[in-house]
C-alpha cells in the first residue's frame, strides 16, 4: 500500500467526496480515483462505498485505522527528528500534510463539562492538535473501529479490536429537579423528564431501579449546559453528574429516586505512541476517582 493511496482513503473519509478529497490533497479527482482503484486492486477488497457521501466500507475502515496509526507514528518521528525541511517532513508523514501531531478523542458531554477540562489545560502545552468528537459514552466502539478516533471515554469495558482498555472510575449521577415542580403530592412517575439525547438512558434506569416505568421525555436538550438549564427552568427532572451539582444549588432531589453510578473506561489504539501514552497518563490523573484497574 502506497502512502498516497492511504492518504486518498483518509481524505475521502474526512470530506465525503472524491472531489473534496482531491482539493484537500492538491491533485485531480482522477488521481484520487486511480489511487483508490490501485489500493482496492492490491488488497482485492472494495475499500470505498461510492455515493453521496462516499464512505469507507467495513474493510476500508480496517485499512483506514491502520493508515491513521501509521500517520500518527510518522508525524511523531518527524517531530522527534526535527525535520524542518518541508520536503523531508512531507515524505515522513507519507504525503498526508503537516507534521503536527493530531490526537482524536471521543468524549461524552458530561465528562467534557466536568473532569476533562483538566486535560485540555495540559494539552495546551503539548506540540499537537487535539480533535474532540462529542459522542455518547455508550456509542464509541464504532468510532474506534472505523479509525475516526484514536481513543475514547466509554461506558463499555469490552475491548475493541486494535485497542486496549482500562477502567477509569465511576461517575455518580443524581436525579434532580426544580423545587417548583414538587407540588400537590406528585410522584416520580408523574413528573416530566428531560433527556440529553435519544441514547440517554440514565433517567430510565433510575425509574426502573425504583420499580417505575420509563416515560417519554418532555424535552431533549443535547448539551451539558443546556440540559442543566432545562432542569432549572422547570421542564422536568434529569440525572446530573456530581461534578455539575455545585453549579446548580437550587435543584433538589427527586423524591423516591436514587442516584446511579456509571463506570467509565479509557480505550486507546494498541500502538507504541508517545503522544497517546502522554494523553493516557493525563486521563488517568484527571479521571473521576482513584479506582482503576487494567483490563
Would you mind describing this structure in some detail?
By secondary structure, the protein is of the alpha/beta class. It has a domain at 171-260: Periplasmic binding protein-like II (D-Maltodextrin-Binding Protein, domain 2, 3-Layer(aba) Sandwich), CATH 3.40.190. It is built from 12 helices and 12 strands. It has helices spanning 3-15, 18-25, 29-43, 58-80, 86-92, 109-113, 117-123, 141-145, 202-209, 224-232, 242-245, 274-286; strands spanning 48-49, 55-56, 101-107, 128-134, 151-154, 163-177, 194-195, 219-220, 238-241, 252-253, 260-269, 293-294. Strand 1 (48-49) and strand 2 (55-56) form a beta hairpin. Keywords: DNA-binding, Transcription, Transcription regulation.
List keywords for this structure.
alpha/beta; D-Maltodextrin-Binding Protein, domain 2; 12 helices; two-stranded antiparallel ribbon; 295 residues
Summarize the structure.
With 295 residues, the chain is an alpha/beta fold.
For the termini, the CA-CA separation is 33 Å
CATH class of the domain at 171-260: Alpha Beta
Helical run tally: 12
Summing up helix and strand content along with how strands pair, one would put the structural category as alpha/beta
What are the secondary-structure elements, in order, as H or E?
HHHEEHHEHHEHEEEHEHEHEEHE
Shape: elongated
Helix content: 25-40%
What is the beta-strand fraction?
Answer: 15-25%
Indicate the mean pLDDT: 87
Spell out the blueprint of helices and strands.
Layout: H1 3-15, H2 18-25, H3 29-43, E1 48-49, E2 55-56, H4 58-80, H5 86-92, E3 101-107, H6 109-113, H7 117-123, E4 128-134, H8 141-145, E5 151-154, E6 163-177, E7 194-195, H9 202-209, E8 219-220, H10 224-232, E9 238-241, H11 242-245, E10 252-253, E11 260-269, H12 274-286, E12 293-294
Parallel strand pairs: 3-4, 3-5, 7-8
Antiparallel strand pairs: 1-2, 5-11, 6-9, 6-10, 6-11, 6-12
Keywords: DNA-binding, Transcription, Transcription regulation
GO molecular function, one term: DNA binding
Family: Belongs to the LysR transcriptional regulatory family.
Amino acid at each position: 500500500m502506497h502512502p498516497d493511496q492511504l492518504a486518498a482513503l483518509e481524505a475521502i473519509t474526512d470530506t465525503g467526496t472524491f472531489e473534496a478529497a482531491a482539493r484537500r490533497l492538491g491533485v485531480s479527482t482522477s488521481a484520487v480515483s486511480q489511487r483508490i482503484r490501485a489500493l482496492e486492486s492490491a488488497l482485492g477488497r472494495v475499500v470505498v462505498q461510492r455515493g453521496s457521501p462516499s464512505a469507507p466500507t467495513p474493510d476500508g475502515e480496517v485499512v483506514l485505522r491502520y493508515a491513521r496509526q501509521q500517520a500518527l507514528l510518522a508525524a511523531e518521528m518527524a517531530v522527534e527528528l526535527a525535520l524542518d525541511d518541508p520536503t523531508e517532513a512531507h515524505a515522513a508523514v507519507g504525503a498526508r500534510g503537516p507534521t503536527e501531531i493530531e490526537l482524536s478523542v471521543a468524549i461524552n458531554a458530561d465528562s467534557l463539562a466536568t473532569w476533562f477540562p483538566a486535560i485540555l489545560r495540559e494539552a495546551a502545552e503539548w506540540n499537537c492538535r487535539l480533535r474532540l468528537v462529542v459522542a455518547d459514552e455508550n456509542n464509541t466502539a464504532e468510532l474506534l473501529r472505523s479509525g475516526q478516533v484514536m481513543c475514547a471515554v466509554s461506558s463499555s469495558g469490552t475491548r475493541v479490536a486494535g485497542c486496549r482498555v482500562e477502567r477509569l472510575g465511576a461517575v455518580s449521577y443524581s436525579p434532580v429537579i426544580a423545587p417548583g415542580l414538587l407540588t400537590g403530592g406528585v410522584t416520580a412517575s408523574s413528573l416530566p423528564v428531560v433527556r440529553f439525547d435519544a441514547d440517554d438512558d440514565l433517567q430510565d434506569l433510575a425509574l426502573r431501579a425504583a420499580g417505575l416505568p420509563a416515560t417519554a421525555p418532555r424535552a431533549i436538550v443535547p448539551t451539558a449546559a443546556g440540559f442543566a438549564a432545562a432542569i432549572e427552568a422547570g421542564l422536568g427532572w434529569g440525572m446530573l453528574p456530581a461534578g455539575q451539582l455545585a453549579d446548580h444549588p437550587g435543584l433538589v432531589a427527586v423524591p423516591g429516586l436514587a442516584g446511579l453510578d456509571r463506570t467509565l473506561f479509557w480505550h486507546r489504539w494498541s500502538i507504541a505512541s508517545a503522544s497517546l501514552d502522554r494523553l493516557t497518563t493525563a486521563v488517568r490523573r484527571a479521571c473521576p476517582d482513584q479506582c482503576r484497574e487494567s483490563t
